[in-house]
Amino acid sequence: MADTTGTRTRGPYRTGVRRREQLIAATMDVFAEHGYAGGSIRTIAEKAGVSHATLIQHFGRKEDLLTSVLQEWDRRTVAEGLSDVSGLAYFWRLPEVMAAHRRSRGLLELFTTIAAEASSPSHPAHDFIQHRYSRNLATLSGHLREAIDAGEAAPMPESQIMNEVRLLTAVMDGIGLQWLLDPSTDIEGAVTACVERAVSAWRAQ
Questions:
Q1: What domains does the chain contain, in order, with CATH numbers?
Q2: Which is nearest to 130 in space by CA: 139, 118, 122, 140?
Q3: Assign residue 87 a region: left if phi > 0, alpha if psi is -120 to 50, beta otherwise?
Q4: Which among 10, 32, 67, 137 has most CB atoms closer than 10 A?
Q5: Burial, 101: exposed, middle or buried (Cβ in 10 Å; 0-12, 13-18, 19+)?
Q6: Which of the four pLDDT bands, split at 50, 70 and 90, describes residue 12?
Q7: Is the pTM of this model over 0.85?
C-alpha cells in the first residue's frame, strides 16, 4: 500500500499557506487603498471574504498581521526594484524605488507608523523593525564596499562606510515622511539629489 501520510500532511499545509498569502494580499490592498488609519481589521476581513476570527486564527494578533504585511512589502520592494543591481548601481536605483511608494501610500504610512511605535522594546513589532533596519544597513554598506572594491568609490574606513549608509537611510525615511505630510513633495527628485551628492563625495575621498 502506498504511503499517503506525506500527501495528507502537505495538502492542508499548502492550503494554509495559500490562505495566509491571500489574507496578506488582501491586507496590502486595504492599506494601499484606505491607509493605515482606515485599514481596520473589519475592512480587511470584508476584503478577504473571511471573519475577524479567521484573521486572528492565522495571525494571532493584529500586530502580527501588520508585521507580515510589512515583511511582504519589504520583500516585494527589493525583488521588484533592487535584486538585479550591485555596487553604485544599487544606490542609483534608490530614487526610483522610493518613488514607487506613491503607488502604495497606505503601506508606507503603515511602515512609518509601526517603525515609530516599535522603537519601544515592548512593542510586538520591535524585533521585526530592528532586524529590518539592521538588514538594510548591512545591504547598503555591502554595496558601498563593492563600489570601493570595484574602484567606483574611493577607499574609506569602515566607520565612515557605516556613517554614510546611516545618513542615506535617514534621508530616505525623512523624505518618505515629508511626502506623507505633503504629497507635493518630489520623492524621486529629493532622493536623486541625495544620492548624487553622496556618490560625488564617495568618489572624491
A1: 1-60 (1.10.10.60), 62-203 (1.10.357.10)
A2: 118
A3: left
A4: 67
A5: buried
A6: low
A7: no
